[in-house]
Write a structure and sequence with these properties.
It is a single chain. This protein has 87 residues and is mainly alpha-helical. Helix content is 89%, strand content 0%. Helix 1 packs antiparallel against helix 2 and helix 2 runs antiparallel to helix 4.
């Protein structure tokens, strides 16, 4: 996959995910702390798309950073969905 294809895919995923998270933010019945976390989460979705050239370099440090960022995003989304489902 070329850099432009990778960036296009990541921008598409970040855009759709940001739209879904913004919808969750507006209509979700979340604790106050989650409302403070969701804006940072939306910004975190755009970091891999903006740094796609660093992912192509294949450095261990960058891959670890992007992996931990992805795990963090998934953990917060799962927690938000669990809180909404519980309430």
């Amino acid at each position: 996959m070329t850099l432009s294809q990778s960036r296009r895919n990541q921008l598409f995923i970040a855009g759709v995910s940001s739209l879904l998270l913004a919808t969750l933010w507006v209509i979700g019945d979340l604790p106050r702390s989650m409302y403070y976390v969701l804006p940072f989460l939306i910004v975190a979705l755009w970091i891999p798309a903006l740094l796609a050239h660093k992912q192509r370099d294949g450095g261990v440090l960058w891959n670890t950073f992007f992996g931990l960022l992805g795990v963090g995003v998934i953990a917060v989304v799962v927690r938000a969905v669990w809180l909404i489902g519980r309430g």
